[in-house]
Design a protein that fits this description.
The complex is a heterodimer of chains A (200) and B (205). Chain A is an all-alpha fold. In chain A, 68% of the residues lie in helices and 2% in strands. Chain A has one domain (10-190). Chain A has helices at residues 12-32, 38-46, 51-72, 88-105, 109-117, 121-139, 141-148, 158-162, 166-190; strands at 86-87, 152-154. Chain A has a two-stranded antiparallel sheet. In chain A, helix 5 packs across helix 6. The longest helix of chain A is centred in the C-terminal third of the chain and has 25 residues, at 166-190. The N and C termini of chain A lie far apart (52 Å). Chain B has a domain at 33-174: Oxidized Rhodanese, domain 1, CATH 3.40.250.10. In chain B, 43% of the residues lie in helices and 9% in strands. Chain B has helices at 2-20, 33-42, 49-57, 71-76, 96-99, 114-125, 137-146, 157-174, and strands at residues 46-47, 63-67, 83-84, 105-109, 131-134. Chain B has a five-stranded parallel sheet. In chain B, strand 2 (63-67), helix 4 and strand 3 form a beta-alpha-beta unit. Chain B is elongated, with a radius of gyration of 28 Å. Classes of the chains: A mainly alpha (200), B alpha/beta (205). The interface between A and B is medium-sized, with 28 and 19 residues.
Chain lengths: 200, 205
């Protein structure tokens, strides 16, 4: 039981190698889902393509069910699973900036690298823009530091906040996701656009 | 379209199962009885008196002696360099950084071994590493270092070396060649000599 690979018991190099392999897998999955096309990504906002919603919600459902079942089989220790700290202000502001960048640039940070890797020039510009953004944020960090750490709630889980079991929350998320999938597919029919990828 | 129905049904039923399951609290760090038994049998959690004495003489920072007896007993007599964590306060918050750490070897001791073994067992069960027991406790310390038995000729050379080392340790801990073997007296601090006040100079004398 416990972590399959205890983080501090393997060398730094192996650790990075594992991270590299996981990153490769993530990139392949993104590319397979068609996320290197900004038409597909922007489709989420216009309603003609909801692949993004489906892929990411499916991924989280798989991970969620996996954790719930592994926990029940006694194969994982949830108390040492890392949960991100929640900072309300940063989460909202970051979410707005991320969404804005997403619809303006047509990529999210992960997919932009993916698309740049298969040679899309707009994605390369996007990656450059991200790097400039990171540089500006890093250089002016003292200005944002207070905002960054404002309204810290700590590593909270939705199930704890709502006071329900993890499994029950899982069921709620699954039902919500399925509803969104069906609505998404209805929207795809309603806002259908001609496929112009052959002309491009 | 049919695939979508099947997928939806599978997902919802998996979700239902997940919702019904009791939420276990697993703890990978704590050892169960079987693992603990295994560790006890291997017996690599004891530190011999000779090893400890050697470390103390060399001022080895790797070892931290922890006296698990009561505060009164600790104040009456303790090994040099030992800190006191009374057994009943073992899991107090203030001691957590000392007993749950990876930097040093903690060596628990008491008069015999009972309290120290209990302390080791409790901390080990919690999953803390780097805790050890001083073999035989203070009683053994006394018979080994303070009043070592002289080996007979049949004991072999190794026993003789051990004996010599123990005599050396005895000198170190009790004072060279002292006739009085009691180690119960703490080494008196060297008094800092005060400067004598100078006489007021000058004036009309």
């Amino acid at each position: 039981m416990g972590p399959i690979i205890p983080l501090f018991e393997i060398s730094e190099e192996i650790n990075l190698l594992i991270a590299f392999l996981i990153g490769l897998g993530f990139g392949i999955a993104l590319e397979q889902a068609g996320f290197s096309s900004s038409r597909k990504l922007a489709g989420m906002f216009y309603g003609y393509d909801t692949t993004v919603l489906k892929v990411f919600f499916t991924a989280s459902i798989v991970a969620m069910l996996g954790l719930v079942f592994l926990n029940d089989l006694g194969m994982i220790d949830m108390s040492i699973v890392y949960v991100n700290d929640y900072y309300i202000a940063s989460a909202i502001i970051g979410g707005v900036i991320m969404g804005g960048g997403f619809i303006i640039g047509g990529f999210c940070p992960g997919t932009s690298v993916c698309a740049a890797a298969i040679g899309k020039i707009d994605a390369m510009y996007f990656v450059g823009g991200s790097l400039i953004g990171i540089l500006i944020f890093g250089q002016t960090y003292p200005l944002w530091e207070k905002l960054h750490f404002a309204q810290h709630i700590g590593p909270v889980k939705l199930s704890d906040t709502l006071g329900v079991k993890d499994g029950l929350l899982g069921l709620i998320v699954i039902i919500a996701a399925l509803l969104m999938f069906w609505i998404g597919e209805m929207a795809e029919k309603r806002f259908k656009r001609e496929d112009i990828s052959k002309e491009l | 379209m049919k695939a979508r129905y099947i997928l939806s049904i599978v997902l919802v039923s998996l979700g239902l199962i997940a919702a019904i399951l009791p939420q276990n609290q697993n703890s990978s760090l704590e050892l169960d009885a079987k693992q603990l038994l295994n560790e006890i049998q291997v017996e690599n959690y004891v530190i011999s008196i000779d090893e400890m004495a050697n470390a103390m003489i060399n001022d080895d920072p790797e070892y931290q002696l922890i006296d698990v007896r009561s505060k009164e007993e600790y104040e009456k007599f303790s090994l040099p360099g030992a800190m006191n964590i009374p057994f009943d306060q073992l899991f107090n918050e203030e001691w957590a950084p000392y007993i749950d750490q990876v930097a040093r070897k903690n060596v628990f001791y008491c008069n015999g071994t009972t309290l120290a073994s209990d302390a080791w067992m409790l901390t080990r069960q919690k999953g803390y590493k780097n805790n050890y027991i001083l073999k035989g406790g203070l009683n053994n310390w006394y018979t080994t270092i303070i009043e070592p038995d002289e080996p007979t000729l049949t004991n072999g050379q190794e026993a003789m070396y051990d004996y010599q080392a123990r005599l050396g340790a005895k000198q170190f801990f009790t004072g060279a060649g002292a006739a009085d073997n009691s180690s119960n007296k703490k080494k008196a601090k060297k008094p800092v000599p005060r400067r004598k006040k100078k006489m007021v100079a000058g004036g009309c004398s």
